[in-house]
Amino acid sequence: MIRGARPLRVLVVAPSRYPLRQPHAGGLEACVWDRVRWLRARGHEVTLCAAEGSDFLGDAPEFRLPVPEWTRPEDSSDTEYPEGYAAAVDSAYDAALDRLVADRHLYDVVDNHSLNPAPIRWSRAAGIPVVTTLHTPPLEPMLEAASEVRDSPHRFVAVSQATARAWSVEGVDAFVFPNGIDTDQWTRGDGGSSWVWSGRVVPEKAPHLAIEAARSAGAHIVLAGRIGDVDYFEQEIVPRLGAHARYVGPLRQPDLCRLVGSSAVALVTPMWEEPFGLVIAEALATGTPVAAFDIGGVSEVLAGMPGAATVMPGDVVALGEAAAQLAAEGAREPLTRVWTRRAAVRQHSLAQRYREVERVLAHTAQPVAARRVPAVSW
């Protein structure tokens, strides 16, 4: 905690689509899960507003958000919602706002990670400071909400320079505050012969291109992650599985750490403007080198990292060659894994960023909480 400051009373708002629990639905859910756990460990009083079934939820029903209920599992999607779900979420956010207004005195600041515009407007509707973290490229509903809170106690932060630039073009300015990972949980592994890909199995993450890259280099690859698009999985992934490619499903963090840490190289294959790429930091923390498509914020996460290479998006042959070279270098010099992890800890550890997290939240909370929380020295 910041020296001289009292604990903050924080309402953390998570995305509504998936519960915060392991195995994590994606990097965003993993980030928010770590944020709640870490803020509480730092002594702050944290209330969570998140999807039903999440860890850390309290007793307030108004802070429990509905989860999509699909009639057929094969219809589930990371981009679509079942009929009626959007209205249910809107009602849930209305109830959360009513609770927030009634108990306004219980909170200093809202730490917002939702992709819904409603929590942005809480800074105006409830007069409570809100810090919104931009985890995606610009979304039109959030842009509209941002235009309505220019004179409210609100601050935007972005997970990368690339993300901040994209939002700035649309008129939303944000401080850059990169994601972090718990490097006490993401520990160094001994490496191995197989390659690895992890993340959401969706077209924009393009794991099928990771399989093609491994095949072009004659390597075996293991894929891990939740299926976010069933049609894509059946059409693009299943036909490519076999002797050289295996899918192991979603894994809890300890199991995923062991898999990534026992791999020769990790492939990262976004085919969209990747805001950050948490799987990059996770792999590097295990000592496993990363070969990635250079798009969005990927190069920022890899900047200054040993054991890293980028190629043009979509170039599977170049990706395979880069990955093979990293794997060979790691086999020749085992200490490369030690150096890679040390660099990842310095650059991506949550422990290196706790002061900045607390300062952003405390500074934003100051206009209404200064009577209780002493000024923060920057």
Task: Describe the global form.
Answer: globular
The chain-level mean pLDDT equals 92
The third-level CATH topology of the largest domain is Rossmann fold
DSSP strand tally: 13
Give the uncertain stretches in residue-range form: 368-378
Q: How helical, in percent, are the residues?
A: 25-40%
Strand proportion = 5-15%
Distance between the termini: 14 Å
Biggest sheet strand line-up? 3-2-1-4-5-6-7
- Count, helices: 13
What's the order of the H and E elements? EHEEHEHEHEHEEHEHEHEHEHEHHH
Number of structural units classed as domains: 2
| Class from secondary-structure proportions | alpha/beta
Q: What is the alpha-carbon Rg in Å? A: 21 Å
CATH architecture group name of the largest domain: 3-Layer(aba) Sandwich
> Quick one: CATH class of the largest domain?
Alpha Beta
What's the story with the biggest beta sheet?
7 strands, parallel
